[in-house]
Amino acid sequence: MKIAIIGISGKLGQYMTQHCLDLGYEVVGVCRPESVGKLARFKDRITVFPGRTNDPEVVRRAVENADGVLTVLAPWGVEDYASGTVRAVMDNAPKDARLIFSSGWHLSVDGKDRYSWKIHFFEKVVGPVVRALRVVDLNDQHRAGKLIFSSGRRWTLVRGSDLEEGESEGLPIWAERAHDPRLAANRTRRTDFALFMVHALTDEGLVQKAPAISAAA
Fold it and tell me: Which of 7, 59, 155, 195 has its CA 20 to 30 A from that of 82?
């Protein structure tokens, strides 16, 4: 199975790469040219297409004939980076490919998730500040989410809790709502977030769902 990882050089991308290789998948990826060196440990086991993840031509070459696409939705800058990345993937991925996207709990399919004061504070107070500084645009992640939800494609949006480093604790649990009591721990090892993303490629029960995930309480 050929898997394209869009945003392959970051921590999550590298964990997903290792999980895919462990399963015997062919791995290709997209990352900024200045970040290619971060992938040196994978050497000739992967193919890297240097470029921005919202560059349609770079993404087109990477996702050609891919069975699945794992995409890290990064909200960097104020130039529609996340939504542009989604458009590039949607416009170029094979019609039947599994499209798996990552985000935090703050994205919601229907607006019915209930959130802690921390998430509300981050969205309402921190969000406008970092956007004014032209660092991060959380609103663009919401636009990206709407593009995914309305696409009609075989998508899954994996919504991660607070992330931490450490040895794997196994596949996280998931629920359709971020406020589900089973997710009270609100923590996930980053390697296990990546593991769930890779797992979603072959879990038909997650098609067109936005699972909120966490380690078990």
Answer: 195
